[in-house]
Amino acid sequence: MSKAIFQVLSSYIEYPVEEMKQRAVDFRKHMQRRRTVRHFSGRPVPREIIAECLLTAGSAPSGGNLQPWHFVVVSDPRVKHEIRVAAEQEEAEFYHRRAPQEWLDALSLIGRTDEFKPFLEAAPYLIVVFGRNDSALPDGRRLKNYYASESVGIATGFLIAAIHHAGLVSLTHTPSPMGFLNNILHIPPDEKPFLILVVGYPAEDAQVPEITKKSLEEIVTFL
Question: Residues of the chain with pLDDT > 90: what percent?
Fold first, then answer.
């Protein structure tokens, strides 16, 4: 097995403490303006913007640097329609047969209580995120991807932040089960669907529920 090669950390930039504080505040305020949107405009988005956001996602840390993610970008209206039909079938089964009432009650507080998902066709892009079970090494061997779900989750977080920073909006959509995505997108079964990220501009009349986020004291313990 080849040995790791190290280099001097040259990309790090240290800022004065006061500037660090301001950067932290500015980024927090910027991210707190992000909202999950369910009403999308059909306005086109340049592909290079999406590509740059995906490169940001690909910079995320991962177990063993194996980068176990695969992003499938869907803009073809026919494929988006096929995904919508299959997703709504699964969602109908979920909402009418499998969903526990306490979960439906929780969803009702933010207006998510039915199987109809028009945003899957309205938005210009669907980014389907897959996690890979194993990776091919340079010598041809295959290695199991440890911490794949955690790594893909971190990369998806990077992607959502990048999309917001670029000036677009997104929605995380997780119909269950999602195996139909492998069939529609011709992805091998050893790649597991993680979620569908719906991306675009908000519709002019887009509405979002009034919600609050937990305070620092509710989510953090300093020891």
Answer: 81
